[in-house]
Amino acid sequence: MWNAIAGLFSGIVYPVQVLVILQRLPRLWKYIVIPILLNVAIAIGLYLGLLFPGLNSIENLITDLSQTASNVTANWPSWLGWLTAMVTFFGWLLQGLLVVLLLVVVGFLLVQIGVTLGSPWYGQLSEELEAHRTGTQPPTPEGTLAILQDIWRAILFEVKKLLLAAAVSLLLFLCNLLVPVVGSTIASLGGIALAATIVCLDFLDAPLERRRLQFREKLGVVFRSFPASGSFSLVCLFLISFPVINFFTVPICVASGTLFFCDRVLPRWQKSSATADSAEA
Q1: Which DSSP string corresponds to the chain?
Q2: According to the model, what pLDDT value does residue 273 have?
Q3: How open is the CA angle 92-94-96, to the nearest 5 degrees?
Q4: Residues of the chain with pLDDT under 50
Q5: What burial class does residue 65 get, using C-beta atoms within 10 Å of its C-beta: 0-12 exposed, 13-18 middle, 19+ buried?
Q6: What gap in Å lies between CA 34 and CA 157, rounded to an integer?
Q7: How far, in Å, are 68, 94, 128, 231, 258 from residue 252 at the CA level?
Q8: Alpha-carbon gap, residue 246 to 122, rounded angstroms
Q9: What integer pLDDT is reported at residue 257 of this predicted model?
Q10: Euclidean distance between CA atoms 242 and 45, whole angstroms
Q11: Are the beta carbons of 256 and 236 closer than 8 angstroms?
Q12: How far apart are CA 172 and CA 195, in angstroms?
């Protein structure tokens, strides 16, 4: 139990560890500056095309709902005034939840696009961090064929993530539709868990991809590293959901994923490999 609690909290601190390492190794900033500039360009497009129109739509929706509620409660007796206050409170609560959901969606899209476009720099950053953390040079596929394989595997990775998201989202939608009251709560929590899982896959992908793991194996790494992977993915999802700040937090989370791999995934693999070698001997 104590190991689970320790793992839960350990997943939260990796972004702070990255900042400490960047302070000690300023040469690594060259792998972060260009992705930050890419994130700025991507975010401008997302904000203009999605965030600002979305905020305007939410405001219009809440205004319409408030007007409808006012019309309904206008003829209520004075002793039901507390219900009017409750309606107003739930209106503000709904607006807050919709805004938070919109920010999470925009941050999630920023990660999906930004990590893909910034992968050459993120890959170099991940290699440097792994070498620094473990003291050994990580495996690095080379050659033209390796580059073509990397591109093909990256495309397959994105497609499989989309299929996973679509399948789980469909199940959550049906749960919300068919199960009264509780279904909405399950769908909301499930949506957050789905987004966190995909974000975790993105931020752990650089060291996992160097080992040429299949998509199911990468998912297995995420699940076997729970609860640390759960807290890590949630804190990363939180960090990338803040406008403007997420220009900088996305590269930090990518670097955090490499540190997480070095501390919580690689030792388990090395231990399993040593056990297998002993058994063969």
Answers
A1: -HHHHHHHHHTTSHHHHHHHHHHH-GGGGHHHHHHHHHHHHHHHHHIIIIIHHHHHHHHHHHHHHHHHHHHHHTTS-GGGHHHHHHHHHHHHHHHHHHHHHHHHHHHHHHHHHHHHHTHHHHHHHHHHHHHHHHSSPPP---SHHHHHHHHHHHHHHHHHHHHHHHHHHHHHHHHHHHSTTHHHHHHHHHHHHHHHHHHHHHHHHHHHHHTT--HHHHHHHHHHTTTHHHHHHHHHHHHTTSTTTHHHHHHHHHHHHHHHIIIIIHHHHHHHHHHHHHHH-
A2: 59
A3: 70
A4: none
A5: middle
A6: 23
A7: 45, 31, 14, 16, 10
A8: 16
A9: 92
A10: 16
A11: yes
A12: 13
Positive or negative, the CA dihedral 23, 28, 30, 31 is negative
DSSP per residue, 139-162: P---SHHHHHHHHHHHHHHHHHHH
Task: Yes or no: say if 211 and 126 are a contact pair by the CB < 8 Å rule.
Answer: no
Placement of tokens 């679509």 in the chain? 166
Give the pLDDT score at 258: 92
HEC string of 80-91 equals HHHHHHHHHHHH
Token pair for residue 27?
Answer: 């040469």
139: left (phi over 0), alpha (psi -120 to 50) or beta: beta
Q: Of 112, 110, 214, 199, which is closest to residue 156 (Cα–Cα)? A: 214
